[in-house]
Amino acid sequence: MRDKLIGLLEPVVAGLGYELVDIEWGSAGRRSVVRAYIDRTDGGAIGLDDCERASRSIGAVLDADDPIGHEYQLEVSSPGFDRPLRTAAHFARFAGSEARIELAVPLGGRRRFRGRLGPVEDGRVTIEVDRKEWKLPLAGISKARLVG
User: Fold this and answer.
1) Is residue 24 part of a domain?
2) Which residues pair with 102 in a beta bridge?
3) CB atoms within 10 A of CB 139
């Protein structure tokens, strides 16, 4: 569902002049929540007006396409200090920063990594953990965030 929502909403958010950083979708019983994290492409800070503007457009697309199929709550916000990392460009942009990465499938006996991000090359991101470099496949990352 997440990938479907990203594919549906990324062009809408880009058309408004923002970047769709990530989407979180979850449900608890009958209630579902869709969280969209947006950022400015000009390097400025996301404000309440930006979130409201994006929320109106995102809500209109979700209402028209109805990918969820039941009632949901939409939340739009800035990525915050613990910014999600989703694309190769995100990892490259924040090289040198500290991050937490979780893999879908273990690599070398571990799934969770916390350390300093390095370069992105050949579909892999480098992360230094306890003075050891790991090259993690971008396609295998299930969750990644900056450490704020």
Assistant:
1) yes
2) 112, 143
3) 8
Q: Are 63 and 83 in contact (CB under 8 A)?
A: no
> Mean pLDDT across the stretch 45-58?
96
Residues pairing with 141 in the sheet: 103
Alpha-carbon distance of 125 to 120, in angstroms, equals 4
- Copy the structure tokens of residue 90: 């995100």
pLDDT score of 106: 96
How many domains does the structure of the chain reveal? Answer: 2
- Mean pLDDT calculated for residue range 38-65: 93
Whether 41 and 17 have beta carbons less than 8 Å apart is answered as yes
Average pLDDT over residues 46-64: 96
Q: CATH code at 38?
A: 3.30.300.70
Interatomic CA distance for residues 136 and 123, integer angstroms:
8
Q: Which of 129, 128, 125, 131 is nearest to 144 (CA)?
A: 125
Average pLDDT value for residue range 97-113: 97
